[in-house]
């Protein structure tokens, strides 16, 4: 067999002694799919297509994949599409995060096991892009991330609607009795009216911007709306780029470096982006042994301004961000803070990209570094006895009048307890209390759902209370807002201090000092710890993926990845 034939289809072939026989067998089975011998000599670009009927955000992938294929063909490669599992955010129980690691394993193993020289990863919805980047980082084959792109906005009367910040805004009004049942049913049909990911700077869009900043997606492609023709051109260009990488391989490990991860954190902070993205970026970087602690996040946050005026923090939508200049415009403003010698899948240095003409930038949507929306980053890590390994507050989405306060804890011990009592008219709660939710972290039965956005109890919301301090080991949707402290580590289910809080305790928050403290003395905490028993089904009594998850998932500060997926030597 010639070297030419060894390319592509012969890649990764297991040699049982008669290698040529194995190539011949593969060729004949490939021929059964209609491929000629000539075509099989081309470099093979796999296309990981996460289309699913259970993923509304990826509805356009059947069209988009045709454009990826054309790009691969035009650059002289052979495109071969393959499916991976997909994660449609709202259709997965108990929470999509639980399956992110599963999708990353599927992606990694299929990229490695099947004969391909490079891969295009088609993702979009919240957990899909991090899953694909985690898998690609571990497989370390040349890979291009193709983002699905955001939805367009819709209308309700004079109001512009975009999933899902406006979903929450109207639901809040409905709970407060300001919107009728008829109206909320009408709004339900208008919140999400095109394919694509949520229309605001939620987790999906934040991760898209991170993928572009890391260099794993083509420059300028993160924010293109899903239904815009530029999205199809980006698909074509991504296919071409992947095929070209076969000649000049650049591996994810050359692109995702400590420097590019820091750049991505800067962009996350300047976007006022999703809290979930910290977990995801930590997990992606962790696959390559890169660890950027929450202390470093705070340093970066203190010196990185918020520049992007998008919901849920600001007032615009993703389509506005695209037309305003997108990620490129943000990177240009942040240039003095960035590492400019990072590279993208094209091989281009970030510094060289930023030399180019920025084009039109709409300053209503993307502020200048000289006149930022906020002088400091949108996210901050808090420490203290309640969160020894850290917790996250999205300060850009919070009420700053609550930043230096002390209040009485009102504790909900589980999601079930929360659901049972939150709207009880007899619930003993005031607007200046601190709501605490326990047992909603990664090892809990619920698997760390987006439950950290505890609803304001109806007895208070009906009196006009819009925000309260809420603390949990859960996550929050990237489209939500409020003074909400999340990702408390260690979580309650493994005996973190959070598990020891009782209704009536005092809790002090100081965003200035980056502290969240339970004002209970150590002797009392030790006494409570001695009495504490985990509210948890042990892994041995669970089965299948659920068992794997329960025994392997790491805490939030380690990205909620599985311990056994870390690089060898970095984790026991
Ligand atoms: Fe897919 Fe929001 S549901 S991005
Ligand atoms: Mg989301």
Automatic annotation (TrEMBL):
UniProt xrefs under InterPro entries = Dihydro-acid_dehy_C, DiOHA_6PGluconate_deHydtase_CS, ILV_EDD_C, ILV_EDD_N, IlvD/EDD_N, Sugar_Degrad_Dehydratases
**Pfam family name, one:** ILVD_EDD_N
Q: Does the keyword Plastid apply?
A: no
**Listed Gene3D superfamilies:** IlvD/EDD C-terminal domain-like
All copies of domain Dihydroxy-acid/6-phosphogluconate dehydratase N-terminal, residue ranges: 42-352
According to the UniProt entry, its GO molecular function terms are: hydro-lyase activity; iron-sulfur cluster binding; metal ion binding
Which PROSITE patterns did the record assign? ILVD_EDD_1
Looking at the record, the residues that make up the Dihydroxy-acid/6-phosphogluconate dehydratase C-terminal domain are 365-560
Q: Which UniProt keywords apply?
A: Iron, Iron-sulfur, Lyase, Metal-binding
As for family, the record states: Belongs to the IlvD/Edd family.
Cross-referenced PANTHER family, in alphabetical order?
Answer: HYPOTHETICAL DIHYDROXY-ACID DEHYDRATASE (EUROFUNG)-RELATED (PTHR43183:SF1), HYPOTHETICAL DIHYDROXYACID DEHYDRATASE (EUROFUNG)-RELATED (PTHR43183)
Question: This chain belongs to which protein, by name?
Answer: Dihydroxy-acid dehydratase
């Amino acid at each position: 067999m010639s070297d030419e034939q060894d390319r592509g289809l012969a890649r990764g072939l297991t040699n049982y002694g008669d290698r040529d026989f194995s190539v011949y067998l593969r060729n004949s089975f490939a021929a059964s799919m209609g491929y000629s011998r000539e075509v099989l000599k081309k470099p093979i670009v796999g296309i990981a297509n996460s289309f699913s009927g259970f993923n509304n955000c990826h509805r356009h992938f059947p069209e988009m994949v045709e454009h990826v294929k054309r790009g691969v063909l035009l650059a002289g490669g052979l495109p071969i599409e393959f499916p991976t599992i997909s994660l449609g955010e709202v259709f997965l129980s108990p929470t999509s995060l639980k399956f992110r690691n599963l999708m990353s394993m599927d992606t990694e193993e299929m990229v490695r096991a099947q004969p391909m020289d490079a891969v295009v990863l088609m993702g979009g919805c919240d957990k899909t892009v991090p899953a694909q980047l985690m898998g690609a980082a571990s497989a370390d084959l040349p890979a291009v991330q193709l983002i699905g792109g955001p939805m367009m906005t819709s209308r309700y009367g004079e109001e512009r609607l975009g999933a899902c910040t406006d979903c929450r805004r109207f639901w809040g009004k409905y709970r407060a009795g300001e919107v009728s049942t008829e109206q909320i049913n009408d709004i339900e049909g208008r919140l999400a009216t095109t394919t694509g990911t949520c229309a605001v700077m939620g987790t999906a869009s934040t991760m898209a911007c991170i993928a572009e900043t890391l260099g794993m997606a083509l420059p300028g492609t993160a924010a293109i709306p899903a239904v815009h023709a530029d999205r199809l051109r980006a698909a074509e260009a991504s296919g071409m780029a992947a095929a070209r990488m076969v000649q000049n391989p650049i591996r994810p490990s050359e692109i995702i470096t400590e420097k590019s991860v820091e750049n991505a954190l800067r962009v996350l902070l300047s976007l006022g982006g999703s809290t979930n993205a910290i977990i995801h970026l930590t997990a992606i970087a962790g696959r390559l042994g890169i660890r950027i602690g929450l202390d470093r996040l705070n340093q970066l946050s203190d010196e990185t301004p918020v520049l992007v005026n998008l919901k849920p923090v600001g007032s615009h939508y993703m389509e506005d961000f695209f037309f305003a200049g997108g990620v490129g415009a943000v990177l240009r403003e942040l240039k003095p803070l960035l590492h400019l010698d990072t590279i993208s899948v094209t091989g281009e240095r970030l510094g060289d990209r930023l030399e180019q003409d920025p084009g039109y930038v709409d300053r209503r949507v993307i502020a200048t570094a000289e006149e930022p929306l906020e002088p400091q980053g949108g996210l901050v890590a808090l420490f203290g006895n309640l969160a020894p390994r850290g917790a996250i507050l999205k300060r850009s989405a919070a009420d700053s009048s609550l930043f230096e306060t002390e209040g009485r804890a009102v504790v909900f011990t589980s999601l079930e307890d929360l659901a049972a009592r939150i709207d009880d008219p007899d619930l003993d709660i005031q607007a200046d209390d601190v709501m605490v939710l326990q047992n909603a972290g990664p090892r809990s039965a619920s698997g760390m759902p987006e439950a950290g956005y505890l609803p304001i109890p109806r007895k208070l919301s009906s009196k006009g209370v819009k925000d309260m301090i809420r603390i949990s080991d859960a996550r929050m949707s990237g489209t939500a807002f409020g003074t909400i402290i999340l990702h408390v580590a260690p979580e309650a289910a493994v005996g973190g201090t959070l598990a020891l809080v009782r209704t009536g305790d005092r809790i002090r928050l100081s965003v200035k000092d980056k502290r969240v403290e339970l004002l209970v003395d150590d002797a009392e905490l030790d006494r409570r710890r001695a009495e504490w028993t985990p509210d948890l089904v042990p892994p041995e009594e669970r089965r299948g993926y659920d068992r794997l998850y329960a025994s392997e998932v790491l805490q939030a500060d380690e990205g909620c990845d599985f311990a056994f997926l870390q690089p060898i030597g970095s984790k026991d």
